[in-house]
Amino acid sequence: MNNKPGKHAAALPTPRKIRRSCSKELYRTIKRLGVYIPEERIKQGEELYYKKVIGNLLWIGENISNRKVLADWWDESVSAELAELWQVDRDALSKAFRHAFGG
Question: What's the domain of life for this entry (predicted)?
């Protein structure tokens, strides 16, 4: 049996890579929002996003190449809690994330 991924199939990312990606995506989102968010809340937001991604890792791995679907998932699963935590408008946050993420 060959447990390696196929020629065009990507392996699931490592926890370190996921954490770094989540951090980068939220950093880009905050820059596009144009509002100040305290460092403490940014860290809490990164942790929230990281936990959501880890919880749905297999589904995200299957849809890794479809940014629109991933951005839709982010809108449904992450944006409401993150907007509440950061005290920003959810629609503005979703729009900034889509612009930063490319979905």
Answer: Bacteria
